[in-house]
């Protein structure tokens, strides 16, 4: 790997997992547009998935007491089905089309967030359907977080529990995604080697993200994230 590729990888992983630690989700939405400056989509997904393993182990250990285990159990089977389908599409689809699809997905999420989340009461069938769709996006883009959070917020209202449960769900998805990526040939040993090289940068993102969650004004912080996501989505589309 050349120096520029290593720099892009470092910046993308830092940005993504800083946001992931602070918010409990959206790490891939931040990391992917940066990594796609240099890497093809399947390779970028492989790197993000590797670091999701490290992040999940650390964060689930720290947040275990706040996690709503029943919600994770209800979404587990549908998520696994969705992840497998997503990885299969990732293996056989055209990267240019997938990049534009990702851009449209990011912009749709930003629009949804800016319009404001209305109070809704999704039934179990709707939540399970969203679970499959969220798993699919997690498998294809590693970006199922926005759909998962719709499910979680329908059941949970306390912000610490929402964030912790999101961390738990994404940890479950990662455990499914890693072996599926390896079996499909997308994830390989060389990627593990370069992930080890930039591991200290990942640790610094985790540390600063947790500090931000504790100290920042959450409303202002969310607006900043949405602005960055909007720029990312536009860059992928155009």
UniProtKB/TrEMBL annotation:
It holds the Pfam family TauE. It is a multi-pass membrane protein. GO terms for cellular component: plasma membrane. InterPro entries: TM_pro_TauE-like, TSUP. It is found in: Cell membrane. Keywords: Cell membrane, Membrane, Transmembrane, Transmembrane helix, Transport. The chain crosses the membrane at residues 6-32, 44-61, 73-90, 97-115, 127-152, 164-187. Belongs to the 4-toluene sulfonate uptake permease (TSUP) (TC 2.A.102) family. This is Probable membrane transporter protein.
């Amino acid at each position: 790997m050349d120096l520029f590729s290593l720099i892009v990888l470092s910046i993308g992983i830092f940005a993504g997992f800083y946001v992931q630690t602070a918010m409990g989700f959206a790490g891939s939405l931040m990391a992917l547009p940066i990594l796609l400056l240099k890497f093809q989509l399947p390779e970028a997904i492989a790197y993000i998935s590797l670091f999701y393993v490290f992040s999940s182990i650390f964060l689930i250990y720290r947040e275990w007491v706040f996690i709503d285990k029943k919600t994770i159990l209800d979404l587990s089977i549908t998520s696994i089905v969705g992840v497998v389908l997503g990885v299969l599409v990732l293996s056989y689809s055209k990267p240019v089309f997938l990049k534009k699809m990702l851009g449209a997905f990011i912009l749709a999420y930003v629009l949804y967030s800016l319009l404001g989340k209305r109070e809704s009461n999704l039934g179990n069938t709707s939540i399970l359907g969203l679970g499959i769709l969220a798993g699919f996006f997690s498998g294809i883009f590693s970006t199922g977080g926005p759909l998962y959070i719709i499910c979680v917020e329908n059941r949970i209202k306390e912000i610490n529990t929402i964030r912790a449960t999101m961390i738990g769900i994404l940890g479950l998805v990662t455990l499914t995604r890693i072996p599926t990526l390896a079996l499909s040939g997308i994830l390989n040993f060389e990627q593990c080697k370069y992930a080890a090289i930039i591991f200290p940068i990942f640790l610094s993102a985790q540390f600063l993200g947790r500090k931000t969650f504790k100290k920042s004004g959450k409303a202002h912080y969310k607006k900043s994230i949405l602005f960055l996501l909007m720029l990312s989505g536009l860059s992928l589309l155009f």
